Amino acid sequence: MFLALLSIFLLLYLIQSTLILLGVRRVRHSEHYSSEPTVTVIVAARNEEEHIGSCLDSLLNISYPHDKLEIIIVDDRSTDTTASIIASYSQHCPFVKTFTAEQSQSHLKGKANAVAQAIDRSSGEIILQTDADCTVKPEWVRETVSRYSPTTGIVGGFTLLRSDNWFGAIQALDWIYLFTLAAAGIGWKKPLTVVGNHLTYRRKAYDDVGGYRSIKFSVTEDYALVHAVEDKTRWDFNFSTSEQSLITSLPCTTANELYRQRVRWGVGGLEMKFRGLAVMAVGFILHALLLLGILLSPRMDILLGAFLVKTLADMIVLYRPLHTFKVDSLFRYIIHFEIYFIIYVVVLPFAVFFHHNVKWKGRTY
After folding, report:
1. Are residue 110 and residue 238 in the same domain, yes or no?
2. Same domain? 222 vs 295
C-alpha cells in the first residue's frame, strides 16, 4: 500500500513538473511591446541601513528616460539610520522622492500601509515594487514595461538570492523554484502569486480593486493584491523570464530568520485558491511519504529511486532559469536543497498551525 501511494504521488509530481515547464515556456515566448509609459518605482524600507545604499545605487543606474521615471523611497518608521541615508540620496537626485510613512488610520499595517501611501504620492502609469535589500539591473524597467500589452494589469519577474555558502544556496534554489512556479501559473492563465520584491502593476489595475485599503489585510500583501486583481477585474497577467529584468536579493543568514520568513509566507498563503492548495498538496504528500518511507518502506532501493527521480524532475524545472541567469553552479547543492525542500514542505503546515502571530521586521501581526 505504501509503495503504491508513493508511486501515485511521484507520478502526479512528474505531471506537475511537466506542466510547470510548459507554463514557463508560454510566458517566455510571450510578445514584447515597444512603449515608454511613465513609471514609478516604489521601495518601502524598514531598518535597512545595511542594504538601502546598494539598492538606491542600482535604482539610480536604471536606463530609462528620467522625465518618465520617478523613484519613491518610503521610510517605514525605521529605528536605525535608514531615513538619513535615504534623505542623503534624494538631495542629489530630483527624481528620487522620499517620505516617512504615517501611522495607519485604516486596517493596513506595516509594508502594505507604507506602499499604499507611496502609491498615493506617485504619478506613474506603471508601478514597480521591490525591496530595500534588493538590487536591480539597468534594463529592469525597460524590460518589464515591454511585457505590458494594453490589457496587461500585472507583470512579475524573477529574484535571485546571492549566495556564498550552502545555506544561501539552498535558499536560492528554493526561490528560483518558487518563481518558476509563479511564472508557470501565469503561463497557464491561472496565477498562483507574484512575489512582492518583484511585483509590478498598472495603476489602473490597482485602482480598479480600490488599492490596498480595499483589500483585506494580509502579511503577504503582494499575494492579496494579485488575487484581488484576478478576482475583481479582467486584466491579464504576464511574467518576465529575462536576465535583464532579474532582481538580486540576500538570503536569510540564520535558521531562525529563515523559519520566521517561511511561517510568514505560510500564514499569508492560508487564503490560497484551490489550484494553489492542489499544487502544495501534491508536494506535501510526496515529501511526507519520502520521509515516512525511512521508517515504513520495506524496499529502501525503491525509496531511493523515488528520491532520485524527484530530484531529477526538480533539476529539469530549475535548469532553464539557472542557465539563463548564469548560476548553473548552484546545482552542486542540489542534494542539500532536496533534503531541505522535503523537510521544509512537510514541517511548514504544522508550523503555520501553531503560529497565529507573525513576527517580522520588529513587528507582530
Report:
1. yes
2. no
Judge if 199 and 304 occupy the same domain.
Answer: no
CATH of the domain at 125: 3.90.550.10
Per-residue pLDDT reduced to its tens digit, 180-209? 999 999 999 999 988 889 999 999 999 999
The 3-state secondary structure of the chain reads: CHHHHHHHHHHHHHHHHHHHHHHHHHHHCCCCCCCCCCEEEEEEECCCCCCHHHHHHHHHCCCCCHHHEEEEEEECCCCCCHHHHHHHHHCCCCCEEEEECCCCCCCCCHHHHHHHHHHHCCCCCEEEEEECCCECCCCHHHHHHCCCCCCEEEEEECEEECCCCHHHHHHHHHHHHHHHHHHHHHHCCCCCCCCHHHEEEEHHHHHHCCCHHHCCCCCCHHHHHHHHHHHHCCCEEEEECCHHHCEEECCCCCHHHHHHHHHHHHHHHHHCCHHHHHHHHHHHHHHHHHHHHHHHCCCHHHHHHHHHHHHHHHHHHHHHHHHHCCCHHHHHHHHHHHHHHHHHHHHHHHHHHCCCCCEECCEEC
Count the neighbouring beta carbons within 10 Å of the beta carbon of residue 14.
16
Query: What does the pLDDT read at residue 221?
Result: 79
Does pTM surpass 0.90? yes
Task: Give the model confidence (pLDDT) of 216-255 as tens digits.
Answer: 877 677 888 998 999 999 999 999 999 999 999 999 999 9
Last residue of a domain, one of 214, 233, 254: 254
pLDDT, position 341 = 95
Total domains present in the chain:
2
Res 359: pLDDT: 65
Whether residue 42 is found in the same domain as residue 183: yes
Distance of alpha carbon 63 from alpha carbon 53, whole angstroms: 18
- Contacting residues for 352 by C-beta, under 8 A, at least 6 apart: 263, 266, 267, 270
pLDDT of residue 96: 87
Domain with 268, as residue range(s), is: 2-23+258-364
Identify the domain boundary among 230, 254, 278: 254
Q: Let me know whether 55 and 165 are in one domain.
A: yes
